Amino acid sequence: MSGGTEPPGAASEPDVQAELLEQALSERKALINLCLYAMDRARSSGVVERLEAGLAELGVSAVRPDGERFDPAHHEAGGTQPTEDPALDGLVAETELAGFTDRGLPLRPPIVIVYAS
User: Which residue positions does the secretion signal occupy (predicted)?
Assistant: First the structure.
């Protein structure tokens, strides 16, 4: 139509673009969650490595805080590992299930085993 008017009920171009962007972001989130689900259940380390590499190309990074100080704000404790060494007390002994961030924003925390004296 001429004069910049649109038929009643027609969406403007910016509205359509915003709707498509919202849909794409929602679909991206669903695909990332599907990949994480598949990684958790994959029996092949090669499949896990390939999925992790593919996610990294999209800005989704694995978090394995082994050797770091346990922080309940960023880690989920899955259990403890006894230690006699006071220097290890409170450190992450190993990561049971990798956590993930999406461009630095947390998707899920890693589940870790924590040294405890």
Answer: none
pLDDT, tens digit (0-9, with 9 covering 90-100), for 67-96: 999 999 999 999 999 999 999 999 999 999
CB burial string 20-31: b at 16+ within 10 A, e below: eeeeeeeeeeee
Contact in structure between 75 and 4 (CB atoms under 8 Å): no
Is pTM beyond 0.85? Reply is: no
3-state secondary structure of 18: helix
CATH-assigned architecture of domain 16-116: Roll (2.30)
DSSP label of 64? -
Question: What tokens were used for 13?
Answer: 């171009």
Q: Where are the domains of the chain?
A: 16-116
